[in-house]
Write a structure and sequence with these properties.
Number of helices: 2
Number of strands: 22
Distance between the termini: 25 Å
Order of helices and strands: HEEEEEEEEEEEEEEEEEEEHEEE
Helix content: under 10%
Radius of gyration: 20 Å
Structural class: mainly beta
Shape: globular
Strand content: over 45%
Largest sheet: 9 strands, mixed
Length: about 350
């Protein structure tokens, strides 16, 4: 009996050992991860971990040093006894020569999802942002497919998947996908429609020759830059925001803090009167040492779900202020212990 009691007490200690701040928020372990090198920027991460603990990180990066044109790159992280070792980046897809995504393509989100198209079967989908105006308005969401997680990715010829008609507003983009079942995905994204700034829609996508696009639904209480992840009993989101003490120094268009929220899995996320979200953590200048902490994203499994019930991993991009802000865009991680 004594041994049982001691075991129970030990379990309580383990449960309560997650580090927290004075206001009860989880405190992460901050870690530098990777960089594209001098004259390159990295942001908007979609990082997924497979059954072998290999991490596939898709993000935005410029191809030519000091030239601002977004491409989508893959960084592959190999687990070793000393931590993850990142392989050199591989360019996955690029802007088209003409059409709706001929300026920038970025904000990738990759998921394992079987779909058919013109008689072929593909196992991986990527939603991404494309834009055809250099003022970065008229953003739209496109789709690419692949038979292998590492590519090659083929752009869907019916793009954009989620169009935006107006050319004087930001549009639709910064998507995150959660696989609902074998036929359907739930797509969350930034929108400047009447349902913005943050919205979602269900899409039946298992046959690209017969896509059924659900109605856009407004998701209140979340910022435009929010990225969800599901677990068995909760929905988490990490959101780029601005604090009350936000210093309006260039770049003023990105937030100084990223916050992690949770809600029950069966919560009504569309309820405009009752906020279901509880803040559990934040990543800001006091922790990172940088005045900006933005474009966050969770490490998920291949279908957009929480891979480890005992921890949350957020990838984010810090930045300095001033004229060198863009070239400070490297990728960092914040790991939160939930035990």
């Amino acid at each position: 009996m004594r041994r049982i009691i001691l075991s129970a007490l030990a379990a309580l200690v383990i449960v309560s050992c997650a580090p927290k701040s004075s206001d009860g928020l989880l405190v992460p372990e901050i870690r530098y991860e990777l960089s594209g090198g001098a004259g390159h920027y990295d942001y908007a991460p979609s990082f997924i971990i497979d059954q072998y603990d290999i991490i596939y990180g898709f993000l935005c990066e410029n191809r030519d040093p000091f030239k601002i044109v977004d491409y989508i790159y893959l960084y592959k992280g190999i687990p070793t006894k000393d931590g993850y070792v990142w392989q050199p980046a591989t360019q996955i897809i690029e802007p088209s020569a003409e059409g709706w995504d001929n300026c920038h393509i970025c904000d990738p989100d990759v998921r394992e999802f079987k779909t058919t198209w013109k008689g072929e079967t593909y196992d991986w989908i990527m939603t991404y942002l494309g834009v055809d105006q250099w003022d970065c308005k008229h953003n739209q969401i496109g789709l690419a497919v692949s038979k292998c997680i590492e590519g090659p990715y083929i752009k869907f010829d019916g793009n954009p998947l989620v169009p935006y008609e107006g050319r004087d507003k930001w549009g639709t983009g910064q998507s995150t996908t959660v696989v609902k079942n074998d036929s359907t995905i739930v797509l969350y994204y930034h929108s400047t429609t009447e349902n913005g700034p943050y919205a979602r829609r269900e899409i039946i996508l298992n046959d690209l020759d017969n896509i059924r696009l659900g109605e856009e639904e407004a998701v209140p209480f979340l910022s435009a830059n929010s990225y969800p992840m599901y677990s068995e009993d909760k929905i988490y989101t990490v959101s780029e925001e601005r604090t009350e003490n936000y210093e309006r120094i260039v770049p003023t268009w990105v937030g100084d803090i990223s916050r992690v929220y949770e809600a029950l899995i069966d919560a009504d996320l569309l309820d405009k009167e009752n906020n279901p979200w509880t803040k559990i953590a934040e990543i800001g200048p006091d922790l990172t040492g940088f005045p900006r902490a933005h474009n966050p994203g969770f490490l998920t499994d291949t279908k957009g779900y929480m891979p480890d019930k005992d921890k949350i991993v957020v990838y984010y991009t810090p930045a300095v202020t001033g004229e060198d802000w863009l070239w400070s865009y490297d990728l960092w991680s914040a790991t939160f212990d939930l035990k």
